[in-house]
Automatic annotation (TrEMBL):
GO terms for cellular component: chromatin; nucleus; transcription regulator complex. This is RB transcriptional corepressor like 1. Keywords: Cell cycle, Chromatin regulator, Nucleus, Phosphoprotein, Repressor, Transcription, Transcription regulation. Residues 67-209 form the Retinoblastoma-associated protein N-terminal domain.
């Protein structure tokens, strides 16, 4: 009887698999048949889990990413012409569910590390985009009219003159411009701070073009603080030159003015110029009746080609009516949500929040070892505000300082038996060169970043390094009553560890995807030595934010739990040097 039941269960499972595959083939075409040849050995494991269509979606994504399709230009296109978004829609699988199932699929299929890193990078990009979209909605509402209130207006008669574009068109066009531009700057895509400033640049451009429209009063929010002084005049002329509202947006919405202007001048404006050169965008006013339809069509076409060739998810799903189901991200503005949907939306928000809490990408937890160093708890803020405020706080800490020894620190150097000045400056320069080279070099894990970003972060770290080194030296001079500091200042590993720690603080402030232990790997520094300098740094710099302290404490725990106990760890040599005399709990505490 048991054998009979097993046979009928197997037949039912096989039927479920065929039905699921048939559904995907009908939705996606012949490309879906590829997965049938790539996952037969995994069938039993898949069917034991249930939800055959969801698992086949994972298999199809892997198969498509491994496919190379010839193109008209005699090149090769990765992706088999099927985007991840189409696969997930066909299988009725949300992005959050996909990432959860994909991890299990990769384990079951024993996929290579390179592919796992690709999925991790995709998930990080999804998280950044989700956070940015949540920020985009209220900023858009601040500048423009509510795009969803237009549905309540009576329909225009056929005789009425058609307007260049509606507020909803504006909303969709601005977001599409952002995701397309972000996709072409891979070094920005998974960087929260840079992505946010790129969004502000897109909003700035759309605002400037909206001012040129005949129906600008229908598009723009009359309460927006960045409107021209004569905007409310009865016969207000269209703006002659393109106004810039970057400063206003940074002031109102947690931006960093210098960084946002840098993104605009060095990346966004040249890129928009290229889009005009390639005839993707055209016209004095992008939103003009004669230009908008073609601009919108060309931009969406370009973005669709990008999605197919790169294989990332189509970030326009945030704009769709089914966004809540497809990725778990609330789409509409609060005023537009029917009462009956409140519970479902709360459920979606809960799932999204759980996903972010599990990933902990933007909010470090409080480690047990570091609670004594934490400042008073700060108010709950958004991830974008948290990131920009972290950078702003860091910039405040080093305001007015140079990335070189101060007069007081040079005096301490000169008071030593042998001045360490030359070796310290030389070492900082060498570390900086290594950092910039690694930061800008693409790897399997992540794309390389632009040298401007590397230099900017390095300069902040250098200033912080000299500032903290000076504080430590002043404290040690007082503690040792003016004793010669030559021995301490000639310790190479101390300086490398301190500089690495300062770089880690800067990377964390920018919500960089290059998370620890990336910095000690590129600087070839042992975790044990890095651990020894963390507490010294925290005690010496009281300007660190609560989140920065939590982050450094979490690194301490990471090293204590695993990294300090590897075969190559410097801890073993330290124990040998102390004749294997391990300190007691009392001595440590």
């Amino acid at each position: 009887a048991g054998s009979g039941q097993g046979g009928s269960a197997g037949a039912a499972a096989g039927s479920a698999l065929r039905d699921a595959l048939g559904m995907l083939v009908r939705a996606l075409g012949q490309a879906a048949r590829v997965c049938a040849r790539r996952c037969p050995r995994a069938h039993t494991r898949v069917l034991a889990q249930g939800e055959a269509a969801h698992w086949l979606a994972c298999a199809l994504y892997v198969a498509c990413r491994k496919s190379l399709v010839p193109t008209v230009g005699s090149g090769l296109m990765e992706g088999n012409g099927v985007s991840l978004t189409r696969i997930l829609r066909s299988a009725r699988l949300s992005l959050i569910q996909f990432f959860s199932k994909m991890k299990k699929w990769m384990d079951m299929s024993n996929l290579p590390q390179e592919f796992r890193e690709r999925v991790e990078r995709l998930e990080r990009n999804f998280e950044v985009s989700t956070v940015i979209f949540k920020k985009f909605e209220p900023i858009f509402l601040d500048i423009f009219q509510n795009p969803y209130e237009e549905t309540c207006k009576p329909p225009r008669s056929r005789k009425q003159r058609r307007v260049p574009c509606s507020v909803r068109d504006l909303f969709n066009f601005c977001w599409t411009l952002f995701v397309y531009t972000k996709g072409n700057f891979r070094m920005i895509g998974d960087d929260l701070v840079n992505s946010y400033h790129l969004l502000l640049c897109c909003l700035d451009l759309i605002f400037a073009n909206a001012l040129l429209c005949p129906n600008r009063r229908d598009l723009l929010n009359p309460s927006f603080k960045g409107l021209p002084a004569d905007f409310h005049a009865p016969e207000s002329p269209a703006a002659e030159g393109p106004p810039c509202i970057i400063a206003t947006l940074c002031e109102l919405h947690d931006g960093l003015l210098v960084e946002a202007k840098g993104i605009k001048e060095h990346y966004f404006k040249p890129y928009i110029s290229k889009l005009f050169e390639r005839k993707i965008l055209k016209g004095e006013c992008l939103l003009d009746l004669c230009n908008f339809t073609e601009n919108n069509k060309a931009l969406n076409k370009e973005y669709e080609e990008y999605v197919l060739t790169v294989g990332d998810f189509d970030e326009r799903v945030f704009l769709g009516a089914d966004a809540e189901e497809e990725i778990g991200t609330p789409r509409k503005f609060p005023a537009d949500v029917p009462a009956g949907k409140a519970a479902a939306r709360a459920h979606v928000e809960c799932h999204l929040q759980q996903h972010f809490e599990k990933k902990r990408s933007f909010a470090p937890s409080t480690p047990l070892t570091g609670r004594r160093y934490l400042r008073e708890k700060e108010a709950v803020i958004t991830p974008v505000a948290s990131a920009t405020q972290s950078v702003s706080r860091l910039q405040t800490m080093v305001a007015g300082l140079k990335n070189a020894p101060s007069e007081q620190l040079m005096a301490i150097f000169e008071s030593c038996a042998r001045s360490p000045m030359e070796s310290i400056v030389s070492r900082v320069k060498e570390i900086g060169e290594t950092f910039c080279r690694s930061y800008t070099q693409p790897t399997d894990e992540q794309p390389g970043s632009h040298i401007d970003f590397a230099v900017n972060r390095l300069k902040l770290a250098e200033i912080l390094y000299y500032k903290i080194l000076e504080t430590i030296m002043v404290q040690e001079t007082r503690r040792l009553h003016g004793k010669d500091m030559t021995a301490l200042l000639e310790q190479d590993v101390f300086h490398r560890s301190l500089m690495a720690c300062c770089l880690e603080i800067v990377l964390f402030a920018y919500s960089s995807p290059r998370t620890f232990p990336w910095i000690i790997e590129v600087l070839d520094l042992r975790p044990f030595y890095f651990y020894k300098v963390i507490e010294v740094l925290i005690r010496s710099e009281d300007g660190l934010s609560r989140d920065m302290v939590k982050h450094l404490n979490s690194i301490e725990e990471q090293i204590l739990e695993s990294l300090a106990w590897t075969r190559e760890s410097a801890l073993w040599k330290a124990l040998q040097a102390s004749e294997n005399k391990v300190p007691t709990c009392e001595e440590v505490c």
